[in-house]
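Example record

Each entry pairs one chain with its bound ligand, nicotinamide-adenine-dinucleotide.
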Amino acid sequence: MASALSKRSGAIVIVGFMGAGKTAAARTLALALGTTSIDADRLIEQRLGRAIADIFESEGEAAFRAVEESVVCELLDRAGPAEIISLGGGAVGSKRVRKALRRHIVVWLDVDPAVAWRRSGSGRRPLARERKAFFALHAARRALYDDVADAIVPATARQTLALAHPSLLALRDAPTGTRMVWALTPSREYPVWIGRGLVGSAVWPVAPPSRRFLVSDENVAALWGGRFGAVDGQHAISAGEAHKTLASAERVWHALVAAGMTRGDHVAALGGGVVGDLAGFCAATYQRGIQVVQVPTTLVAQVDSAFGGKTGVDLPEAKNYVGAFHQPAGVLVDPAVLETLPAAELSSGFAEVIKTALIAGGTLWDRVAADAPIDERLILDCIRCKLGVVAADERDGGARHVLNLGHTVGHAIETVTGYARYRHGEAVALGLLAALRLSGQEALREQVSDLLTAHALPTHASGLDAAAVIAATRLDKKRGPGGVPMVLVEEPGRVRHGASVDDLELERAVLELVA
Ligand SMILES: NC(=O)c1ccc[n+]([C@@H]2O[C@H](COP(=O)([O-])OP(=O)(O)OC[C@H]3O[C@@H](n4cnc5c(N)ncnc54)[C@H](O)[C@@H]3O)[C@@H](O)[C@H]2O)c1
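Structure tokens for the complex follow.
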């Protein structure tokens, strides 16, 4: 995790694997700010009067690392807030360098290993001669970058850092320990900050003169609304899924008009997934679209619903049937607000955590399966998984369907029970069990069932009308001529969407929940 030191006097330091484009990104950022950047590798070459590849060749890696450590530490120790520095990919391997990084804003330019390999090209770099070793090194270094990073930015376009710059600087005024992840979609890029104490802090992605209209629900407004100080208008809907309706949306629209909100103003959505979806939808449609800042206050919203831009309301016939894609201008995730969340709501969010971990696999699944505590790290890893999926398929054309794992049956259960009997996460918990049954994953289903039970989530739904649930799955928005495509799990980390499932099998999987 990033350090707890104040970042006020520090420089912006870019770290990341070879091929991430650190030098170019630093240069582009410096150019945008009218300054110059410093590249640590170039500095080393200038000092020694030789190319790094030569030093590697003649004296070996250890000798190079020793020189690198001393040059980089010297550079970091004197660097001030106006400086932009890029480090070589292996510099963070040194404990001394990691310590010297603590007072700076450290940006991890996160590059996919295949992209990095292509960019590092044909053995020109000493550590990029053999593909397998290159990929292994990439995997090994991730933990180091993660450990020092205050901000994680995907290494895609050169301009990204220049766009992200104000959000990086916001880390200087953020509560200690706050981290930022840069979310990328084709329609919009935005910052996601995560840190305890963010609600009510100076961190905000939209600057005046844009005015702020707060949308919340009655519970959250009473608990956390005051943290926002003076706002330019506000409306609190009644709490709960039963109020994620067009009628509530209409009330918000009228309140926006009454407060004189214009296209330049923005909505702050403070609440769980219900508020986030509804306020996002109101923002997407009010005067054909104004900005929305998501401030999620439930676990469901902090790990899932606040990101990715799906907004909307339910119809009595089916869930989320009216809506719009509308990416937020930014998201503030403050885990401290979960302290007032009722235990049952926290459990409900855990179902989305399990879903995300099944999709992500790897260390996230390992930690969730071992029942790791729900902390900033776990929330951040879920966020990064979701942002990665959305970046690949913003408008739900294919790859994003994996996020629907457990939701086909889950949504159907919510619909047939009038959005009143189960919390969203509880319905997802049941849906996950059905999906794992359909995936033929007996052992994994058992394991997930145990996790659900340990978190007081349902594994059975007695009294549920199975036929009605099956009929409701046929109304799923993703249905096509071949029926409702299901998301199935091959193993944690390998999830397949678009699977066609026999009606009889679906019936069996649902009946099993009811039994
Ligand atoms: N857009 C997406 O991508 C997406 C993804 C997942 C879920 N969702 C949607 O999210 C909704 C479910 O969200 P949810 O589970 O957050 O439910 P919710 O918004 O209804 O919140 C649950 C309850 O917790 C209360 N609450 C919220 N924050 C609190 C806090 N900090 N302290 C005390 N009480 C608090 C609320 O008032 C409410 O009573 C569903 O409508 C679902 O469709 C959307």
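The CA atoms of residues 23 and 86 lie 6 Å apart.
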